[in-house]
Amino acid sequence: MKKIINTVNAPEAIGPYSQANLANGVLYISGQIPVDPVTGKLVEGIEKETHQVMKNLEAILTEAGMTFKNVVKATIFLKSMDDFAVMNDIYASYLDADSYPARETVQVSCLPKNVDIEISMIAHQD
């Protein structure tokens, strides 16, 4: 059985999708971009963008009763691999080194709203 997870503490979906779906103890979080859910505006600069994306992901995890420790897989899309080191340091600061998820990072030519980063995650209930 699928349960749709939605929170006002993360940006509303900008298309025909849910913020996340919980199915059989697995949480599938849609790609998050750096939209501030309070203002509805994009934040700019890879540092601020990465922090905002991680805060958006954290809000969805919290709504589902989980934390970053529950994340088993992350997919990161960057507009430029030149931003990798900065993004990676900020990303790691939100995680516990004892429970890093599996991950891939890919460079893409364009992202929604022309942002520099988008991250999706899969988490599992303990």
UniProtKB/TrEMBL annotation:
Name of the featured protein: RidA family protein
Biological classification of the source: Bacteria, Pseudomonadati, Bacteroidota, Flavobacteriia, Flavobacteriales
Family: Belongs to the RutC family.
Annotated InterPro entries: RidA, RutC-like_sf, YjgF/YER057c/UK114
UniProt organism field: Chryseobacterium oryctis
NCBIfam families: Rid family detoxifying hydrolase (TIGR00004)
Superkingdom as given in the UniProt entry: Bacteria
